[in-house]
Amino acid sequence: MSSVSGVSSSSATAASSKLRVTGQASGIDVDAAVKQMMSGENAKLDKLKQERQYTQWKQEAYRDIIKDIRDLRDSSFLSDSPDETNMISSKSLTGTSVIAGSATSSNSSQSTLVNGTSLPGAATGTYVVTVNQMAKTARLPSSALKATTQVTTKVNGADVINNVVNDATTTSKLSDINSNMKTQLKFVIDNHEIVLDNSNGDKTVNDLIYAINNTKDSAGNALSDNYKVGFSELNHKVIIETRSSGAEKNISIHNEGVGLSGLGIGTSDGTTTATGQDAKLTITAPGESASEVTKSSNTFTIDNMTYSILKDPAATLDVNGHPTPYTETLTVKADSKGAVDKIKAFITKYNKLVDKIYTMANGKKDYDYKPLTDSQKESMTDEQIKTWETKAKGGILSNENELDSLLNNMRRAFTDKVQSSGLTLQDIGLDTYGFDSSSSTMEKPGQIKIANESKLREALETKGDQVMNFFQGSPDESITDSKQKYNNTGVFQRLSDTFRDNAVTADSILLKKAGYDGSTTYYTNELTKQLTKEDSTIKDMAKRLNDKEESYYQKFSKLETAMTRLNSQASWLSQQLSK
């Protein structure tokens, strides 16, 4: 709990530890006299401490705002923001939903064959998807591996050595899988030469996988950038494959000597290759004729519709051993409820942040309430102290230019037209609050409201691509003029940029002002520097006051000494006169 204390208590403690003469001879209450003489000086120190407390409160208030800004940004504007609050993902503002023909129940729209996700702008109606081939990686698996180990048992007192064969694991020795691998293993994968010395026969499957994954070519390119190597515990196989699928992906392994042939990958001194394959399907969009589609991935987007192939036609073969194509229907219907609910939830959180910043930036300071000194707090209850400090903190950030600028940029993010979308805030049923004639003030300054929910639903369902551009649009790369870039940037990206420029990076406005925990600005910001300077000033003044207080006690001590002598002389004189 914050407080402001004068130097008198500390200096008095220091003084009491020294030998001081009380006012027995002079009749003066020395402590009371010194306290009275120091009161004006201590008031100056208390004022310095109050100013220091104001600075600390200001920093705490700024950091509280920074935290709230970061929280909203992290939950809404990052690629890894949670799905339920993410406002920049392509599916977050869709005004449609998809029902698959193969959905397993009436409560689920999910397909077991092809998943469909409608994005803003997707045409409503039924899509017919026939999958002929699934996209696959280029893949070279080993044989199902077995490891042979020797186990010694005693039979009639004699040692008997038996060979035990088990399924291989990642800890199995390569030489136990194939005795020919007890040598220097050398092979080449995509111009990456791998050498693993297994002359002692102690290398394991794990060692082999590690050696492959950590190999780099002469240019420093890691093999693991384009290929992945792992071990299947289910099938007991080492699998080497490309990270991406598609017919253009291939893998080539050349064994120099035994190499990987001991695992069933290629032949000794031979080269083996594998090629990936594309997904091949036919899509009939609503009102359109069938179109043949070839894609390198099983997940792709065409005309604002994302498709994900789930089942491999090769999993079921016909009587001739050929893959069996299958067909899925995906019905897209108008359904903006999820997007509307998401926008509502965001606006609620956004308005809460705006209200907090506006209240802090426009609060009125009550000069009757200042930071409490320790002596003042001694006569107050905890609740009284809390109430007092709440009032004392009022208006701590009033008239701060940084906050005024922040609020203005946040408001403009919504109200400035997004040229690429062709829409305004009012076109999609949103608006700002207006002037309240009853109180002659702006109602909820800077906040956003849903003025017409029906209009918002209609815009999401019929102008989905425009709504997406309004909120999520990015300027074309050909645009270099900063003003034109801004004019073609969506609302949420504008807000994200504003939050970044004010509360995220080390050179952001509020972090340079107040700093933030976990940032390099925590100790280098403007207010921390001010606090350090104020601490130094307080320390210097406290020392001066302590010295001054001590000098007063020394003067009273001399006065007491003089009075004692005078009293002694007067007593002697009185005795002499009475004889």
Automatic annotation (TrEMBL):
Any GO CC annotation of this UniProt entry = bacterial-type flagellum hook
Ranges for domain Flagellar hook-associated protein 2 N-terminal come to: 26-137
Map out region (Disordered) in residue numbers: 1-23
Q: Which residues form the Flagellar hook-associated protein 2 C-terminal domain?
A: 276-568
Give residue spans, biased composition: Low complexity.
1-17
Please give the chief subcellular localization of this protein. secreted
Keywords from the UniProt entry = Bacterial flagellum, Coiled coil, Secreted
Entry-linked InterPro entries: FliD, FliD_C, FliD_N
Q: Where in the cell is it found?
A: Secreted; Bacterial flagellum
According to its UniProt entry, one GO biological process term is: cell adhesion
Q: What's this protein's function?
A: Required for morphogenesis and for the elongation of the flagellar filament by facilitating polymerization of the flagellin monomers at the tip of growing filament. Forms a capping structure, which prevents flagellin subunits (transported through the central channel of the flagellum) from leaking out without polymerization at the distal end.
Quaternary data? Homopentamer.
- Family as reported in the entry's similarity comment: Belongs to the FliD family.
User: Which PANTHER family does its entry note?
Assistant: FLAGELLAR CAP/ASSEMBLY PROTEIN FLID, FLAGELLAR HOOK-ASSOCIATED PROTEIN 2
Which protein are we looking at? Flagellar hook-associated protein 2
Source organism (scientific name): Clostridium drakei
